[in-house]
Design goal:
By secondary structure, the protein is of the alpha/beta class. Helices cover about 35% and strands about 20% of the residues. The chain binds adenosine-5'-diphosphate (ADP).
């Protein structure tokens, strides 16, 4: 069976077609800078050169249209018609407490995903656009939703409860859920393999640093805490999201500028993060370039970003009471040599020591810590697509 995996992020979209019999990737691609200037699709058919097309894409539906064109292209495509795709696996960000595992997409599931949209305003609507666009073009193909929240369901209540009146948890399920679960799970399994340990024996801090970003504390292979919360807004500084801040800032700003709740929500989700601090861009490459060119606010954004990662990293090391490795993954974690350096700088007393020469690498599964680092530092390119494809094929095979 061929499975198409669609992974819509907030500003990027990754896709793959996998042949499940061999778990081989027939083609894969990355659409970047969706909704911002310079949208581009990179499509690579196995064994062929990369095909790059720069074309304006105003939203995710536009992006998926270009993906389908690439999949059926006579030179770079892998199918002659989309009917050859046996199933589609969609990464869906928020499953609330309704979905603790992957599920076949039905009208009822789509309704539930829609109902979670206010919890993940940048993501669930983008995921739904992907699902709808695929349904329009492949009405008979079964589709599966794989939720980012699932891996974090092992968190103890003491980690997921918020210190607000308990009735809000009872009545509305207001609690920490956590996201990027498919990625944290994948790198946990790979880290165990790299360390030569059973996954049930590894203690890790996994750092998924993309446009959206989260850390997870993984004890004995299971998540015990993670930095994102009820929504993907909590935790780290992100491309356009604020992460944690004093909740009283909202009240103060609302009074000062007469802002509505919706306006505050937009500010925190879409106008904050490194974009908000730097005023340059939500894309770290632009911000790094500006900082290197002497832009003080761009430098401040990057410094604040690294400090926030350290804040969670320190907390999770304390919770774990013994850590085998720190794992860097996702766009920034895999590619930004300087950001990994900034995060690890000054942590030698905790037994964390980067090797500058080994760290001079991008997008490759490798150890980047010094030989005498007590805690290993691993670079592991994430592969959410493979995990999604396996779940999808498994569910569709049992129909
Ligand atoms: P998401 O899926 O959440 O949109 P990704 O994991 O695709 O995020 O990561 C996107 C982020 O990674 C962008 O902010 C981008 O700037 C950053 N990134 C990608 N390549 C590099 C690089 N070479 N140097 C610095 N940042 C990079």
């Amino acid at each position: 069976m061929k499975v198409l995996v669609i992974n819509c992020g907030s500003s990027s979209l990754k896709y793959q077609v996998l042949e499940m019999e061999t778990e081989s990737v027939l083609c894969k691609g990355l659409v970047e800078r969706i909704g911002i200037e310079g949208s581009v699709i990179n499509h690579t058919k196995a064994g062929m050169d990369k095909f790059v097309l720069t074309v304006p894409m105003k939203d995710h539906k536009d992006a998926i249209g270009h993906v389908i064109d690439a999949l059926t292209d006579k030179d770079h495509g892998v199918v002659s018609s989309m009917d050859e795709i046996g199933a589609v696996g969609h990464r869906v960000v928020h499953g609330g407490e309704t979905y603790a595992s992957s599920v076949l997409i039905t009208d009822e599931v789509m309704k539930a995903i829609n109902e979670c949209a206010d919890l993940a305003p940048l993501h669930n609507p983008a995921n739904m656009l992907g699902i709808r666009a695929c349904q329009e073009l492949m009405p008979k193909t079964p589709m599966v939703a794989v939720f980012d929240t699932a891996f974090h369901q092992t968190m103890p209540a003491s980690a997921y409860i918020y210190a607000i009146p308990y009735e809000y948890y009872e009545n509305y399920k207001v609690r920490r859920y956590g996201f990027h679960g498919t990625s944290h799970k994948y790198v946990t399994e790979r880290a165990a393999a790299m360390l030569g340990k059973d996954v049930k024996d590894v203690n890790l801090v996994t750092c998924h640093l993309g446009n959206g970003a989260s850390l997870a504390a993984v004890k004995n292979g299971a998540c015990i805490d993670t930095s994102m919360g009820l929504t993907p807004l909590e935790g780290l500084i992100m491309g356009t999201r604020s992460g944690i801040l004093d909740p009283a800032v909202l009240v103060y700003l609302a009074n000062k500028e007469n802002l509505s709740i919706d306006q505050l929500n937009t500010i925190l989700n879409k106008k904050s993060g490194v974009q908000g601090i730097s005023g340059v861009s939500s894309d770290f490459r632009d911000v790094e370039e500006a900082a290197n060119g002497g832009n003080a606010r761009a430098r401040l954004a990057l410094d604040a970003y690294a400090e926030r990662v350290k804040f969670y990293l320190g907390g999770y090391l304390a919770k774990l009471n013994g850590c085998d490795a720190i794992v860097f993954t996702a766009g920034l974690g895999e590619n930004s040599i300087t950001m990994r350096e900034s995060i690890c700088k000054g942590l030698e007393s905790l037994g964390i020591k980067l090797d500058p020469a080994k760290n001079n690498v991008r997008g490759k599964e490798t150890v980047i810590s010094a030989d005498d680092s007590k805690i290993k530092i691993l670079l592991i390119p994430t592969n959410e697509e493979l995990m999604i494809a396996k779940d999808t094929a498994g569910i569709v095979a049992s129909l």
